[in-house]
Amino acid sequence: MATTALAPREDLHAKVRHQIPAIEWPVFAADIEAIKALKKRRNAVILAHNYQTPEIFHCVADIVGDSLALARQATEVDADVIVLAGVHFMAETAKLLNPRKTVLIPDPAAGCSLAESITPEDVRQLRRRHPGVPIVTYVNTSAAVKAESDICCTSGNARAVIESLGVSRVIMIPDEYLAKNVAAETGVEIITWAGHCEVHERFGVEEVAELREDYPGVVILAHPECPPEVVRAADFSGSTAAISRYVADKRPERLALLTECSMSDNIAIQYPGLEFIRPCNLCPHMKRITLGKIRRALETMQHEVMIDPLTAARARRSVERMLAVR
After folding, report:
1. How far apart are CA 45 and CA 84, in angstroms?
2. Total-model pTM
3. Residues 6+ positions from 282 with CB-CB distance below 8 Å
4. Counting Cβ atoms within 10 Å, is residue 158 exposed (0-12), middle (13-18) or buried (19+)?
5. DSSP characters for 103-155?
6. Residue 195 to residue 176: CA distance in whole angstroms
7. 3-state DSSP call for residue 65?
8. Each residue's pLDDT tens digit in the chain (326 positions)?
9. Which residues contact 208 (CB under 8 A, 6 or more apart)?
10. Third-level CATH fold of 115-197
């Protein structure tokens, strides 16, 4: 009976079999079946970031991508309920763009070191210290911080956002390394904040050198939240969406992704013929999201993301200004 019930999902296991052993699949399959049924009952969709594990990314998500893709597609969702398989600031962004929909985060403790590195008062102090200088805020921040900003950006559109302002000087918060990497591309003077991603700040140039020595011909792709010296030492740097496009277009035979571990897992499923060297770092916050928690979120309709209306109105303007930049 159990085997028959789970058979329709065997096609999903075929997709992720290199990441999920057959002995473990029945446990995942039970949650996947329940989530599929709950999505229909609740008229819900699941948005999953590229750092989610394969059983979420490939087996239950309806929309996947980086922060920019999720922000854009959140505006087009035709559902009553959005479950954000990612971290809390992403769920807040989905709520900002869908104020009348129910947005759920499976684990409200799924945070972000960047979001925690800056407060609304910090932004107000920066504005007082640098009057008239526009503030560009990375989406990896709370809605309250976005509300104090002029425009948001993601790692995928940071350069375009900054250049769209037509000024010679901006404040970019809170990721210091992303700001420095963008400054190197634009010629715009960027005032930075000392926030860092706990995943990407751990990569170093020594690791890049070791990869090249140990794996001849390896192509190294780095996320722009990595330190500038790491980005300079890599073969390519870009957002998770840009990294995915690079792999799709170039198909390097041997590659290493300097980013969160599940990114390599998810791309490897799409391109099984490529050799992935995995010098990755885990994001403890992303890994708080599991199939079981997604299932419980849909069963109990928890945990709903709520934002103060005045804060939401101001933060939404910053996000919408970002989405208007092409």
Report:
1. 9
2. 0.92
3. 199, 260, 261
4. buried
5. EE-S-TT---TTGGG--HHHHHHHHHHSTT--EEEESSS-HHHHHTSSEEE-T
6. 6
7. strand
8. 344 444 446 778 777 877 777 888 888 899 999 999 999 999 999 999 999 999 999 999 999 998 878 888 888 888 999 999 999 999 999 999 999 999 999 999 999 999 999 999 999 999 999 999 999 999 999 999 999 999 999 999 999 999 999 999 999 999 999 999 999 999 999 999 999 999 999 999 999 999 999 999 999 999 999 999 999 999 999 999 999 999 999 999 999 999 999 999 999 999 999 999 988 899 999 999 999 999 999 999 999 999 999 999 999 999 999 999 98
9. 220, 230, 233, 234, 258
10. Rossmann fold (3.40.50)
Tokens 């999953």 map to which residue? 48
Residue type for position 290: T
Domain 2-110+287-300 belongs to what topology?
A: Rossmann fold (3.40.50)
**Three-class SS state of 75:** coil
Q: Is 260 helix (H, G, I), strand (E, B) or coil?
A: strand
User: Torsions phi, psi of 254, nearest 5?
Assistant: -135, 125
Please state which of the four CATH numbers 3.40.50.10800, 3.40.50.300, 3.40.50.1980, 1.10.3210.10 is assigned to the domain occupying 200-277.
3.40.50.10800
Cα-flanking dihedrals φ and ψ of residue 260, to 5°? -70, 145
